[in-house]
Amino acid sequence: MAAEGSDWLRGRFVIFNVCRGRFHLQAAGQGALIGIPSQSQLHLHALHRRPIMRSNSQALKHRSSHDTEREFGGTLGALCIPVFLPLTVLFLVGVSRSPDASVLQWPPPLPSTEQLWDPLALVLLLGWVALHALLYVMPLGKVSEGLVLRDGARLKYPINGFYGLCVSSVLLMLLLGLGAPLGYLFELLLPLAVCAIAVSFLFSVYLYIRSFWVPSHALALGGNTGNPVYDFFIGRELNPRIGDFDLKYFCELRPGLIGWVVINLGMLMKEVELRGSPSLAMILVNSFQLLYVADALWNEEAVLTTMDIVHDGFGFMLVFGDLAWVPFTYGLQASFLVVHPQSLSSLGAATIIALNGIGYYVFRKSNSQKNQFRRDPTHPSVAGLETIATATGKRLLVSGWWGLVRHPNYLGDLLMALAWSLPCGFSHLLPYFYVVYFAVLLIHREARDERLCRAKYGLAWDTYCRRVPYRIFPYIY
Ligand code: NDP
Questions:
Q1: What is the DSSP string of 261-301?
Q2: Which residues cross the membrane (predicted)?
Q3: pTM (2 decimals)?
Q4: Dihedral sign, Cα of residue 344, residue 345, residue 346, residue 351
């Protein structure tokens, strides 16, 4: 039985410890399987491990290509998304800097080659990634362990992203003090986006090729269907590393996320160049998004338990998302404001600040509550919360933030997303791109997570859904 590859198995069991030739499986449903009582545990001995010890390309021959459920529209999605999304980035960046800033103008004005390519952009991009790679390997901050992998190992991760943000901020302040024209990032936006897209493609090809040399237990369960287009897109290897340097974890929160706030700062400096001082709207957008990025890096350890790290392979989807999509589309409001200044009343600004504050509060409190509960359910801040048991031994919160809706953290995130767009007024759709896209992303992500949780927790998950019927928006969805 090729235990690792079987979706049948995954749907019904939780493989929660695999070590020294022994699988430790637990029934995921509650007595749903004939002959396997709830809480039953199977021990499959070394004999059953043999199939996954073959080279992973060999192992693939023994799998049917359809035994892994495909996401994002399967092969068609995997073919179209890598074409469509990079073009979307270039389109949005181009439109945000144009006088009309109309996303409905068709056909969109095509940029010239000079507008798309500047060798300086490539130098800056590679230099930026190298700087963060250097900061990553610096012995700063603590080292944490990730979740237990299928081979029983736990990888170590440096928790020093916040230092990366601080060091980059100091360097930027120094550069500004020396008179560096940071506002030039406005002119460089399109070439930078082109380079980030090109780097994402090349890097994904590298990741795809190298994944054939790793043992099969190092592959993501959903990422080795045998269909090259889909596997390239979704990512074959779960935790690609060069030595101790974890490529996925590095890309997840550092060059792209910190790059996003640097681009924002560049837009603010461009405004200063053009108008003498930054507008209130620009300051709000910069501050809100800096808070979001700083929070993510401050709580970097939490990323170790996210779907991206635990479940998804590292392929084009995550590479492009981390390196191109996030830095160039999440901050469109700032580039929009350079060309379309907005005046904001004090009342308007106060309302927007309050909305961002509420969103941040819901987002942070709910994420912290779940993280605390998962780390130490006996901690006084979570010990009094009502929970339900699951067959895996883990419990699910049904009161507190997680009793309000099934994804209170997404609710808070969406409130913040709206607050980032509102400073741009109501004259254009473009600044609202992020909130609309993000709502679609989180609704889709929520559905993926529900599927995974139902597979993990079986009937206990259904009980949770009955107790907490709304997914993201109370009484609405
Ligand atoms: P979540 O933090 O929402 O985690 C989902 C997991 O939490 C489930 O798989 C389950 O895992 C656990 N869980 C679910 N319900 C309960 C419950 N009732 N009690 C206890 N545990 C529960 O996952 P995400 O990674 O999607 O989101 C993390 C944050 O990142 C969110 O705030 C989100 O908004 C944000 N985000 C931001 C993005 C951006 O681009 N800006 C993109 C994606 C996410 P288990 O039981 O195994 O612990």
A1: HHHHHHHHHHHHHHHSS--HHHHHHHHHHHHHHHHHHHTGG
A2: 72-96, 116-138, 159-182, 188-209, 314-332, 344-363, 417-443
A3: 0.83
A4: negative
Q: Residue 181 C-alpha to ligand 1 middle, in angstroms? A: 40
Gyration radius of the chain over CA positions: 23
Helix, strand, or coil (residue 455): helix
Length reported for the chain: 477
Beta-sheet strands, E only, within 395-471? 395-397
- For residue range 401-460, list pLDDT tens digits in order: 999 999 999 999 999 999 999 999 999 999 999 999 999 999 998 998 899 899 989 899
Model pLDDT for residues 221-257, shown as the tens digit of each residue? 888 888 999 999 999 999 999 999 999 999 999 999 9
Choose which residue among 249, 409, 438, 467 to substitute to test ligand 1 binding: the one with the highest number of ligand atoms within 8 A of its C-beta.
Answer: 409
Ligand 1 neighbour 453 (Cβ under 6 A): yes
Other beta carbons within 10 angstroms of residue 267's beta carbon come to: 29
User: What whole-number distance in Å separates Cα of residue 447 and Cα of residue 468?
Assistant: 15
Nearest C-alpha to atom 1 of ligand 1 is from which residue?
306
Cα–Cα distance between 451 and 305 in angstroms, integer? Answer: 17
- Distance from Cα 411 to the centre of ligand 1, integer Å: 11
Asked whether 417 lines ligand 1 (CB < 6 A), one says no
Q: What are phi and psi of 387, to 5 degrees?
A: -135, 165
**Ligand 1 near 312 CB (within 6 A):** no
